[in-house]
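User: Predict the full complex structure for these chains.
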Amino acid sequence: MQMPEPDAGVLARREEIIAAMRAIVPGEGVIADDTGMRVYESDGLTAYKNMPLIVVLPETVAQVSAVMRYCNENAVKIVPRGAGTSLSGGALPAADAITLGLGKFNRVLEIDYDNRCARVQPGVTNLGITQAVEADGYYYAPDPSSQIACTIGGNVAENSGGVHCLKYGLTTNNILGIEMVLPDGEVLRLGGKHMDAEGYDLLGLMTGSEGLLGVITEVTVRILPKPTAARALMIGFESSAAGGQCVADIIGAGIIPGGMEMMDRPAIKAAEAFVQVGYPLDVEALLLVELDGPPVEVDYLITRVRDIAEGLGAVSIRISESEDERNQFWAGRKAAFPAIGRLTPDYYCMDGTIPRNRLPEVLDRMSTLSEKYGLGVANVFHAGDGNLHPLIMYDANNPGELERAENFGSDILRLCVEVGGVLTGEHGVGVEKRDLMDEVFTENDLKQQQRVKCAFDPSQLLNPGKVFPTLHRCAELGRMHIHRGQMPFPDIPRF
Amino acid sequence: MVETLKPATTEQVIEAVTWATGEETPVEILGTGTKRGFGHPMGDGNRTISHAVDLSGLRGITLYEPEELVLSAWAGTPLAEIEAAVAEKGQMLAFEPPHLARLYGNDGGTVGGMIACNLAGPRRAKAGAARDHILGIEAVTGRGEVVKSGGRVVKNVTGYDLSKLLTGSFGTLAALTQITIKVLPAAETEETILVSGLSDADAVILMTAALNSSNEVAGAAHLPAGAADASGPVTALRIEGFAPSVEARARSVRDMADGTGTVSSLDRDTSKAFWLTVRDAEPFVGSTAPLWRLSVTPTSAPVIVAAITGEVPGTVIYDWAGGLIWYQSDADDAGGAAVRAAVAAHGGGHATLVRAPDALRRTVDVFQPQPAPLAALSQRVKESFDPRHILNPGRMYGGS
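Assistant: Here is the predicted structure of the two-chain assembly.
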């Protein structure tokens, strides 16, 4: 993975930049010593590390705006950062860029129950939002597995999902507005407490833009009344095909579960060894189905799902009879990553999405690849929406094994694309999948995305080296090749 | 006289737009043109429209996998054809797109037109708008280049979400050629609780309480006296889902409503019919009077309505528990000043003049005016797709 060559001119001006930042952000908000900066050298994708130029931790929107304006006027790049939990290297620093941490923006500004929304600063954690409203019976629906640590600003930047998004949507479906700072320091508000955009849906565009278009300084999220009941089924199948069929039949019956997760045999085994919650060890696929809503509905649907599973020859079916038992069912799934971590020195978490009915084929071909590369793989799967998380097991201390794991991962993602899926369902492109973007997009597609970037960030200072495999100057992208004087459309019917 | 080109393939759309770009000839992009009255009349400054690109020849459903909850179609496919196809499999477009054409005395409309206008019906608060259900898009930009975004899977963060950006862009960024949307199972049954006699303020209080309960209310509208029923106001709360659940939740909602007004129920079929009238703003169909659609902070709605109608009388429907206000103005000039002032004074939001005579829509802001930095950014985004302002010039904002 190649990052853009650092700008020697910027490196040479480092002291001057530090002084300018200290004038904007007083006190401890500017970190320039190696020890202090070390904690920022990577994000959740720890295979990649880079020391930043400096780290700046502003506390006010005015400071963010002043930092951006200075950087814009002085051609200094910026890498925005929330909690640094990105699994795609989205917050990976660059040697010639300021890492702009939004961690000090950690206040819940307003909770408006009547309008079912809350206004929060971007450094508030995902779980922190739910904790602020749960005593009153509300919650914030998207729940990425890093929710204890990840921030809502990062969630917007990555359009984070979680296990509940089949029924409740992704981040993009659960926010109403943002305040953001453009690279030139201009502060904008998009949306508010009302629904839908005035003009172009720039809020939709910003969501999932991976910190390349602007820095988010406030988010208005939708909050929902908490469902009054939730129960789960744990269903074991002899094949992933049968598990996949069960998922299809549940949806075919008109049931959209609150959560629907599948694990393959290696993942089941690892999880059970770790948390011992009674996962069946003699099955190829384990399906967890959670139904939430009013108790009468939950009880009714539990029966329907059980009947569907029985009809498909499920090997084992357990239904939660208490909150404790429901949490137990989930404990193994939620601990799947650390459980794999116990079996292997390192693991690499992938994030493709596939059309759900291609699952058995994809799993088969993945085991062939696993043999080819000589590396184990375990799969957890957001079964409802086709989002697959293969966990590749490797040992970084063995020379060449990281590269093999990366190549294995790239092959898996190519496979996802080949069957009609995409490179990333919820982790983002970042640096990790940047060089695979042309598997999905044509040159025109990527150029148009970059033109949109130029509309926000004409000097291309924000989050350099991420998302796009090839860099183009904005002036070059703006050029248009005009074909004049052609015989206009002889083949097109006209009226 | 406008010359209309009717391409039948994406390649022909590219050909037509490339020609228009080369000649610097602005073109109207349309499906069947049933919502022409939505937005500014075409043309900006000295440029008039001499050519139109009619996408209704790009027609047909290309993929529908009910169990994968996904449907793809050519942009010119009639919306009704898609609604019929999904209904046959017990599914729906959950965002319940209004058949807006009816407000303009037309009928029909295409899926591309529906996406281009980002429509959303009474289920908006629970299920979202068109923008929440778009999964992928193919379109031809004002550069004459085909661009794809998204895909056919629900969970996808690969690249910028240009599908959302194009949704609601009124054909000013690109000509949509193919659409992929998420479909969902239709509810097994539904019931609507009706409460008669509530004031606007009390209605919004009840709708707020209902939406904030755990009853998963999938529609909350208030029709003041004169809107649907001349004899008095009606407030409606919709419950949908599986029969045993609907029964229990409807009971709970009825308990909440008891004592506020006269309570009654609509069964499945009458409920369906009722919400179609709310969806399409039926009380305003058949008129040509100026009509506004306001998206506001839901609990501010009664104050906003009082402020507007205090100055300029008219007829109002509340949907989305107050988040959406339809306001048909009695004034020939549509009362724009009063509308804009009321929205600005009470929590913000946006107001769109969805229907008015051409002459009026030429002279007033149809869409919510934007602060200068946001307007400038929108222009730069526009120019990134359509640098020569070829596509639907002037339809949304001046020059775009």
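The two ends of chain B are 22 Å apart (CA to CA).
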